[in-house]
Design brief:
alpha+beta, 434 Repressor (Amino-terminal Domain), ten-stranded mixed β-sheet, 8 helices
Length: 257
């Protein structure tokens, strides 16, 4: 009796030591879709099959669909690289495959995705969008002493950053290549009585040295944090938490049209 499509997928899955979760990650399908496919043992849609096939670039699509021909196709160099990238994506989430294979780019994939935004027509929609506040104004806004409407500022509509309360412009090169001078970061203010740092995340801090856009890591003790620049030319330094007047977490990176 000839094997079914589901049985052939399960054969590859077993051979490659994939779990339902890792197959979902490599194919872009949901774990629920994968589990349902195996439990019902019904032939998946063409779209689902193509996505599963993309997770196994060294395996013949003809064999997967029909059972004819050889299981493994004659791979090109690109096929091998794609197979490695899928393995990396499954086993090393958050690691940039390009960096691992070539040394180019950043070691870790960015959580914040750069997007293009448009300016709000302030004359007709004065309260729409997210306000872009000057760096100097963050001191007042960070401490909650001033209302955002007091600032004469531009506003931008960014649907994917609904939780952001304000935008602030990056100055200088200390956070390159991820944040370039002129980029905007979308920020969400954190109440001073409820500060919980997510280590290695980027924050905007209102400090005695002014506003800082920096990556935060664990300090030498509970009263200090380590201030880190993405640009390796800038040395990290510790900052006492009592020197922080206001804080906001960066929830996204934005570039103007």
């Amino acid at each position: 009796m000839n094997a079914t499509v589901i049985e052939r997928i399960m054969e590859i899955k077993k051979k490659e030591r994939f779990t339902n979760e890792s197959l979902a990650s490599a194919s872009g399908l949901s774990v629920e879709t994968i589990k349902s496919m195996f439990s019902k043992k019904t032939n998946p849609s063409i779209d689902t099959l193509l996505k599963i096939s993309s997770a196994f670039p060294l395996y013949s699509l003809e064999w997967l669909l029909t059972g004819h021909g050889t299981m493994l196709k004659s791979p090109t160099y690109g096929d091998v690289l794609e197979a490695i990238r899928n393995k990396v994506k499954v086993s090393c989430p958050g690691i940039n495959p390009e960096w691992l294979l070539t040394g180019k780019g950043e070691p870790k994939l960015s959580d914040e995705k750069p997007v293009t935004i448009k300016k709000v027509d302030m004359k007709n929609n004065p309260t729409d969008g997210i306000p872009l506040i000057p760096v100097s104004a963050f001191a007042g806004f960070g401490k909650g002493e001033m209302q955002i409407m007091e600032y004469d500022c531009e506003r931008y509509v960014v649907p994917m950053f609904k939780e952001a309360e304000f935008l602030i412009q990056v100055k200088g090169s200390s956070m390159t290549p991820k944040y370039n001078s002129g980029d905007l970061v979308a920020c969400k203010k954190i109440p001073p009585n409820d500060i919980f740092f997510q280590w290695n995340k980027v924050y905007v801090l209102d400090t005695v040295q002014g506003a800082l856009v920096k990556r935060i890591k664990k300090g030498s003790d509970s009263e200090h944090i380590l201030i880190v620049s993405d640009n390796e030319k800038y040395e990290p330094f510790e900052l006492s938490t009592n020197q922080i007047n206001g804080i906001a977490i960066v929830v996204g990176v934005l570039r103007l049209e």
